[in-house]
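Handout, section B. The chain below has 91 residues.
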Amino acid sequence: MPSYEFVCADCGPFEVLRSMAQASSPAQCPECDTQARRVFTAPGVALLAAPRRGALEREERSAHEPEMTTRKTGRHMPHRHGARPAWVMSH
């Protein structure tokens, strides 16, 4: 069940576990029992797999400070002149 954050004007933020159908409904503050409004927060990306989380973090950083590289990356593929793949027929 998803967790949603709410803010009470007097007591501050608190979280409530509830169904998605009830997400936009106000919640009762657990301290003072007044109605609190929902606050929209970023999704929990900590549960993502490490490679995907790393890619999202790099993307966020590059929006503000593009990363500069000083070396080439990837595999070196030697260039062969005159060699044909086995599936190419010669005349």
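Note. The radius of gyration is 27 Å. Compare this with the example in section A.
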